[in-house]
Design brief:
The protein has 480 residues and is α/β, with parallel strands linked by helices. The chain has helices at residues 9-12, 16-37, 59-68, 87-101, 121-135, 188-199, 213-232, 245-254, 260-278, 298-305, 321-331, 334-338, 357-365, 369-377, 387-394, 415-420, 433-439, 457-468; strands at 2-7, 42-45, 49-53, 72-82, 106-114, 140-141, 148-155, 158-170, 179-183, 203-210, 238-243, 283-285, 311-313, 380-383, 399-400, 407-411, 428-430, 448-452, 474-477.
Length: 480
């Protein structure tokens, strides 16, 4: 199968040098991803598109990569033939495929032509449409609202017959706009903010401030891995964990309860700035949205930002919660966010909504910053692509490669994944991970349970959740 990759329109309006650089970056990104699927996949770069030739055995994997890679506006699946430049030969070849498409339906032909020919695109549309009308049995021609649009691209002596069109991710190619560090809590907002920066071509690293123990950390790593593997896997990025329990303790000791939430956010920015400078990164991104919670009023955000000189991006600043949740639905992060514990709220009591800069200085002066320094020194950085290995090493959950007696396998993948790739060779029950915490205590607790997911990250997270709740009859199933 041949694919024609159409570029994000904002790429095409750039100056010649910038456009060339972006197309080259997108081509390199696609090659990196596609060659992991099949080393024989061929790619070719043009000034306005990229062509990909792949074996039919890898169609689904190629489609997924092309439609989820930043910089791609549209993907055309085409059948290509060398026909020469004679219009009759081109029309006959199109008819071999399109006659069956227009049976009993209204249709129109649309042609895009490049190269040197004795006919215009309009003349080609009329001629090919006439041939289809004669050879087929359509309901008629409709130039404005046809049931079938037959799309043809002619370039010199070759013709591409479009069989499918798929919408791409848009945005700029990953790596073309620099790097930043995303403050990740794993909830709706921080995951969507990270997605939006990745879509804009920014190489997005992740920093997590651990306030809630091992299970929370595994959960955030899980969603970071999902975002990276789906939208940014052409580049290697880092996941930084900063232990913040002692920092929270110092906030309780030194800070008035009404300023605790603002103080926590300021300390997170201070730590992120130091880590970002160590990594050679010039900007931070957060999921804050104006007025969504008490710490995100305009005044409070200004007080928070006053603690850093680093650029802080807030792509969700003017979005409302329904918009954010709808986007989470579309990109597949909603269930992750819904099952993520939220710990930032535990120190918010009678929070100030119109913080004073002078009062904040007095509160900040009482804080022992050696505690923050120790937290930053204790930060742990791993490549995102090593998260699975890291979770396996750090989670206190037993992993089994076989299913022993009196043990039930629970497939916790989403319904669509279960249908597309059913679990084979073992008996299992299906409880999607976002329902597991509510349903597990209703199961027969005299039995042992093994949780299963494709890569073992979600299963370990939720097994850890259940163990923390006091269930000792849960482990992880990872087939050999």
């Amino acid at each position: 199968m041949k694919f024609i990759v159409k570029l994000f329109p904002e790429i095409m309006v750039k100056g010649t040098a910038v456009k060339k650089k972006m197309i080259s970056q997108l081509h390199d990104n696609l090659r990196t991803l596609l060659l992991r699927v099949d080393p024989e996949i061929q790619t070719k770069r043009f000034w306005d598109k990229i062509e990909v030739q792949a074996d039919d055995a890898y169609l689904e994997a190629v489609r997924r990569i092309l439609t989820q890679t930043p910089g791609v506006e549209q993907v055309l699946e085409v059948i290509q033939h060398q026909t020469g430049k004679e219009l009759q030969d081109i029309a006959d070849k199109v008819a071999e495929y399109a006659v069956s498409w227009i049976e009993g339906k209204t249709f129109v032909v649309r042609v895009k032509r490049s190269g040197t020919h004795d006919f215009s695109s309009y003349e080609a549309e009329r001629f090919i449409g006439g041939v289809l009308y004669q050879k087929g049995n359509p309901a008629g021609v409709d130039l404005h609202n046809p049931e079938v649009k037959v799309e043809v691209e002619i370039h010199q002596d070759s013709v591409n017959i479009v069989t499918a069109k798929r919408t791409g991710l848009g945005g700029f190619p990953m790596g073309s706009q620099g790097e930043l560090l995303s403050l990740m809590s794993g909830g709706f907002d921080s995951t969507i903010a990270s997605y939006l920066t990745m879509r804009r071509g920014l190489k997005t690293h992740f920093i997590f401030f651990n306030l809630g123990g091992a299970a929370h950390e595994i959960g955030v790593k899980q969603v970071a891995l999902y975002l990276w593997s789906r939208f940014g896997a052409s580049h290697r990025v880092s996941f930084v964990t900063v232990p913040f329990e002692e920092v929270v303790g110092e906030i309780f000791r030194s800070t008035h309860e009404s300023y605790m939430g603002v103080t926590l956010k300021r300390l997170m920015l201070m730590a992120s700035e130091k880590v970002a400078k160590q990594m050679g990164i010039d900007a931070l991104v957060t999921g804050e949205s104006v007025a969504q919670v008490s710490s995100q009023t305009l005044r409070n955000l200004a007080v928070i930002d006053s603690v850093t000189n680093m650029l802080v991006l807030r792509p969700l600043a003017t979005m409302d919660k329904p918009e954010i949740m709808a986007l989470a639905d579309r990109i597949g992060t909603r269930h992750f966010a819904e099952s993520m514990p939220e710990y930032c709220g535990v120190i918010s009591k009678n929070p100030v909504t119109n913080a004073s800069f002078d009062r904040m200085e007095k509160e900040a002066a009482r804080f022992d910053y050696s505690v923050l320094d120790r937290a930053i020194e204790s930060a742990v950085t791993i490549p995102v692509d090593k998260i699975i290995d890291d979770v396996t090493e750090t989670a206190h959950v037993e992993i089994l490669n076989e299913v022993p007696g009196n043990t039930v396998v629970i497939d916790i993948r989403a319904e669509s994944e279960q249908q597309n790739q059913p679990l084979k060779d073992v008996e299992s029950m299906a409880i999607p991970f976002h329902e597991l915490n509510q349903k597990f205590d209703k199961l027969d607790q005299s039995k042992q349970y093994l949780l299963y997911c494709d890569k073992g990250v979600m299963s370990q997270l939720h097994a850890q959740y259940l163990k923390d709740k006091g269930f000792d009859n849960v482990r992880v199933y990872r087939p050999a």
